[in-house]
Amino acid sequence: MLHEVFNVGELCKKEAFKEHTPEGLDMILEAAASLSQDHLRPILVEMDTKPPYLENGRIKVHPKMRELMQGFGRDGWISMSAPHEFGGQQVPFTITEAVGFIMGAANYSTMVYPFLTTGAAHLIESFGTQKLKETYIPKMYAGEWQGTMALTEPGAGSSLTDVVSTATPTADGHYLIKGQKIFISCGDSDAVDNIVHLMLARIDGAPAGIKGISLFVVPRMRPDAKGELVFNDVNTAGVFHKMGYHGAPIAHLIMGEANDCRGYLIGEEHKGLSYMFQMMNEARIGVGCNAVSIASAAYYTSLEYANVRTQGRKITEKDPLKPQIPIIEHADVKRMLLFQKAVVEGSLSLVFESTIRYDLSKTSEGEEKEKNQLILELLTPMVKSYPAEMSILTTSTALQIFGGYGFTKEFLAELFFRETRIHTLHEGTTAIHGMDLLGRKVTMKGGMAVMMLMQEVMADIDRAQKFDALSLFASILGEKLLALQEITMHLVSVAQNEGPEAYLSDATLYLELFGILAVGWQWIKQGVKVEELKAAQTKKYSADFLQSKSYALQYFFEYEIPKTEGLIRRLKSDNRVTMQAGKETIL
Amino acid sequence: MLHEVFNVGELCKKEAFKEHTPEGLDMILEAAASLSQDHLRPILVEMDTKPPYLENGRIKVHPKMRELMQGFGRDGWISMSAPHEFGGQQVPFTITEAVGFIMGAANYSTMVYPFLTTGAAHLIESFGTQKLKETYIPKMYAGEWQGTMALTEPGAGSSLTDVVSTATPTADGHYLIKGQKIFISCGDSDAVDNIVHLMLARIDGAPAGIKGISLFVVPRMRPDAKGELVFNDVNTAGVFHKMGYHGAPIAHLIMGEANDCRGYLIGEEHKGLSYMFQMMNEARIGVGCNAVSIASAAYYTSLEYANVRTQGRKITEKDPLKPQIPIIEHADVKRMLLFQKAVVEGSLSLVFESTIRYDLSKTSEGEEKEKNQLILELLTPMVKSYPAEMSILTTSTALQIFGGYGFTKEFLAELFFRETRIHTLHEGTTAIHGMDLLGRKVTMKGGMAVMMLMQEVMADIDRAQKFDALSLFASILGEKLLALQEITMHLVSVAQNEGPEAYLSDATLYLELFGILAVGWQWIKQGVKVEELKAAQTKKYSADFLQSKSYALQYFFEYEIPKTEGLIRRLKSDNRVTMQAGKETIL
User: Fold this and answer.
1) Measured between beta carbons, which residues in chain B are less than 8 angstroms from residue A334?
2) Active site (catalytic) residues of A
3) CB pair distance less than 8 Å for B578 and A316
4) Which of B315, B558, B564 sits opposite A575 (nearest CB)?
5) Mean pLDDT for the stretch of residues A355-365
């Protein structure tokens, strides 16, 4: 996918990535795979059975985690995407996410720590003062200090505008911070020596709403004048008990109980949310990637089982003395496997579509930069939500393949089913992304992003039309895109006639529809490449491998694309039951 | 629903139920609700955090369970549906299932013990010898001895024909049993003094396949000549660690390791599976009912939260100083609530549709009996699978409403999400029911069951056409039923042209399609009653309650019925990708 479909090697021609080679990028992925196999997967089950706990006001995590973080630092995993000036390797974001995919498939919890740290450090790099950079970044990239995003508060989750944590300026330049933060991933742990929170708060007298939110570095321990670490009045009030990925804690933190919590402003006052969106947008692609990674782990575990577990016989075989057959030979089990494969590999393709555009938007100029930036922004709610929502279904399907065993801890399917359920919740719920897509992204710059995306998709459809194996599916995708455009125009008229609430009332369904078509596009792209490789009679890939892609593409167009019909039907309807039903009539 | 839609009180006119009154039936439900609220729900979380464990070869369960089983026995819950001659109260099956619904919503684990015991005792009642009845039934109904279904073996799950446990006849009339059984619900526990397994095994020399399977009573402890209990060589090899409903164990059992496990034949040799189907058919309705009960508990917990949790403001409200609003006021949250309500109350209606037909088939004669029996058989795969599959989605939606909290153990949503996942697996996986529906039920007696069902549905559609509020939806259902018939005919031609494998390859989708329409029918039935009650200006129900039903009906037809379009599209396709893809091309 990376080389054939997305030509990741081409990125090495860019100035920023010129020290890399395509082969070098592969080596990074191979190293990630070794690390994942040898060190992350072996502790997956143990981490699940021994969740983090609070002891004497601190969160204790799996003892192996400290060693892993040191390794992530020492071996350059935390800093791999950072610029050379910060000791990083300037690896493309696409490769960073591919590494995240590999590690996440092995043991999602373990990769939360380094990836969060990278994101937080990257924010300091981009917007922090020289002093903040010098103080925090080396320790974070070394895996000694953990980075976090400290956004959510008890009263401010989906509604970030309602953040109430405060920051009072002092004559010494720092601010005194007061507030509570909840659900802070890796917000406290004994795997590191210090925790560095990238925290949203309001400076005294700031405007109400999102225009009054600033961003601060708030460490758990702050370096004093002599450079020694002193407690910065960041207290751990609790650890949440989660349904899954028990290896990574989420913390409830209280800042400034003793009036001695210092925060250091990042960038300008009141612009915190715009800075934070750098980290959030990367994290949203990351969430999609993590959802696919867990879903892919579930897929492979069920595929392995389906090949070895025998049960039943062909429907036409009436002799009960004939041996039972591997369940993969039953059409319905193949359906359940192809469903997972089609969704997982389609989603992963959508992730790389986004990361490549991220890399291109950072390394190109002018129209090219703008185009990639706009398409990336448009795709972000989909790349976050489609894998997240679908991974609930695909991991559930993996579990189903195990029959009764699937419900037990004998196999990993139930663990992956629990693990992936977080992804429709963090980094914005699916509903938030539906509103982001329909309320902001589709209409921004007069619909420019949609137009640019459609041009690219139509070009891929044209390419696909040349192949007999693809022309039917390419035509279907073309028709569905027209239907999507029609629906979009219809909704715009709803906005005009009935107002913004009606316009957005089914935004989640619109997101689902757009997401299915975006993944359909990815399968067309993959299909074109597969047909080219088949035609070239390459020996690089086995015929079975190429055919497996063709079957997954067929599955997607036969079983998943039809789901758009019901969505289109509903989005065209003028029934507004979800608006009309008052709370007194939902009983 | 019970009184208005299904006229459950009418059953009291039947000879078998003549000692009951409609008010008396209500009192049973109220008693079940009190018991559930006071004794079952309070230990739900504790049971979840303290799963059963194996100690010295025995399974230990929650200490409260023994007391509960004694209460279930003492207060007549286990025997309520049993005939008077066995000390039962001859309560209609509909009421028994309604009690199961109430208890299951409170704490599913706790109701597994008594309901399994009832089913097992009922089987002995129906087919056992007088001696078996006298020996086992009183103890079981007293809650002192647990009943089980011991069907599954390591190599025989979906394929029951592959049961290999053996039974060797002895001169004393009993059989010596040898074999292993897995996933046996309540297969061992210290909540009772003895466990009575209704076990499938093959008598030496029996024919291969399902025609050689017999049914035995195999107690853990057998009464000796003096009536004292001696160990019957039924060993507990293990307890499975499950994802949910930790209060009820599933056991791995080994019978006859010391060659001293006695089994007592039920009915005739080799006819075991047909007897077992009595218990299985009841249990399948029970599974659907349990899935709805858990889904309904999840719905109410999310509804309660949505009414109290404030977050965000109306889309049109731009002032960040205005207070936040309860999330139930957001259209997307209402969508998530109405989705749950429409599916839960539609599914529950389908459960009662089935139980009423069960009661009518047992208490009527001639054509009436046959019609109810046939429709029940046709509905059984749907009433088992639709709630089971949909409860995965509805409990997931309940969890979603809690935002980040949903993923934590602060609230019950995640517990219900884990709990209900069993229901697509036990009592036949969804795939098995798809094949049962399309391969057996649709075609039995020349399609008689489908014809009889369609007549009833068409009559309800006609009734609905008279109401303005329903006529559109009634017409849609009518159109969809025609499409279903077309699809069925199309599939029959596939069977003729391509054989049975192709015919059944998408049976799971056919089951889904039929299930959605069956629940659409239930909403039309409920809708007719609601419109009648509205027209009658009754004071029995609040206007809000009646309107809540109307909104849920609208939701179902606006958001769920459209899903049939994609299913119909797929079922019409002649692409056979799930058959063509060989295991070497699923990678």
Assistant:
1) 578-579, 581, 583, 586
2) 427
3) no
4) B558
5) 97
Length of chain B as a residue count: 587
* Residue for token pair 């792209």: A525
Quote the pLDDT of residue B278.
85
The share of chain A scoring above pLDDT 90, in percent, equals 99
- B407 and A399 within 8 Å at the Cβ level: the answer is no
Mutation test of the interface with chain B: which of A153, A300, A332, choosing the one with the most B Cβ atoms within 10 A?
Answer: A332
Taking CA atoms, what residue in A is nearest to B548?
A: A585
Instruction: Tokens for B339, please give them.
Output: 């989705």
Q: What is the CA radius of gyration of chain B?
A: 25
ipTM value greater than 0.90: yes
* A544 to B418: CB separation less than 8 angstroms, yes or no: no
Question: Average pLDDT by consecutive 10-residue portion of chain B (587 residues)?
Answer: 97 97 98 98 97 97 98 98 94 98 98 97 96 97 98 94 97 97 97 98 96 97 94 98 97 98 97 92 96 98 98 93 97 98 98 98 96 98 98 98 97 98 97 97 96 98 98 98 98 97 98 98 98 94 98 98 98 97 96
Inter-chain CB proximity A334 and B578 less than 8 Å:
yes
Rounded-to-integer distance, Cα B363 and Cα A516, Å: 51
pLDDT recorded at residue A278: 85
Residues in Cβ contact with A510 at an 8 Å cutoff, skipping those fewer than 6 apart: A434, A437, A438, A487, A491, A571
pLDDT band at A345 (very low <50, low <70, confident <90, very high): very high
User: CB–CB of A233/A36 below 8 Å?
Assistant: no
B169, B237 in Cβ contact below 8 A? no
User: How confident is the model over A308-323, as pLDDT tens digits?
Assistant: 999 999 999 989 999 9
Region of B584 (left: φ > 0; alpha: ψ -120 to 50; beta: rest) is alpha
Between CA A459 and CA A454 the distance in angstroms is 8
Taking the mean position of all CA atoms in its chain, how far away is CA A232?
Answer: 32
User: C-alpha distances in angstroms, A381 versus A394, A563, A580, B214?
Assistant: 20, 19, 27, 57
Q: Token pair for residue B587?
A: 């990678």
Q: Give the Cα-Cα-Cα angle A10, A26, B584 (nearest 5 degrees).
A: 105
Tell me the pLDDT tens digit for each residue of A69-99: 999 999 999 999 999 999 999 999 999 999 9
Summarised one tens digit per residue, pLDDT across range A474-515 is 999 999 999 999 999 999 999 999 999 999 999 999 999 999
The first and second tokens of residue B371, run together, are 């019609």
Identity of residue A249: P
Cβ contacts of B152 on chain A, cutoff 8 Å: 404
A-chain residues near B326 (CB < 8 A): 583
Which residues are within 8 A (CB) of A60 and not within 5 positions of it... i.e. 6 or more apart? Answer: A52, A53, A54, A189, A190
Please list, in sequence order, all residues whose beta carbon lies within 8 angstroms of the beta carbon of residue B225, skipping any fewer than 6 positions away. none
Please indicate whether, in this complex, the C-beta atoms of B332 and A508 are within 8 angstroms of each other: yes
Record the tokens describing residue B20, joined without a space.
């009951």
Alpha helices in B364-429 (DSSP H): 366-401, 413-419
Collect all residues with Cβ–Cβ distance below 8 Å to B577 and sequence separation of at least 6.
A338, A551, A554, A555, A558
If 0-12 CB within 10 Å is exposed, 13-18 middle and 19+ buried, where does residue A478 land?
middle
What is the pLDDT, as a whole number, of residue B440?
A: 96
Residue reference for tokens 């079940």: B32
Please check whether residue A119 is in contact with residue A147, taking contact to mean a CB–CB distance below 8 angstroms: yes
User: Roughly what angle, to the nearest 10 degrees, separates helices A468-498 and A507-535?
Assistant: 160
Q: At what angle do helices B507-535 and B448-465 cross, to 10 degrees?
A: 30
SS3 content of chain A, % helix, strand, coil (to 5): 60, 15, 25
Tokens of B491: 């599939």
Contacts of A72 (CB under 8 A, 6+ apart): A78, A113, A114, A143
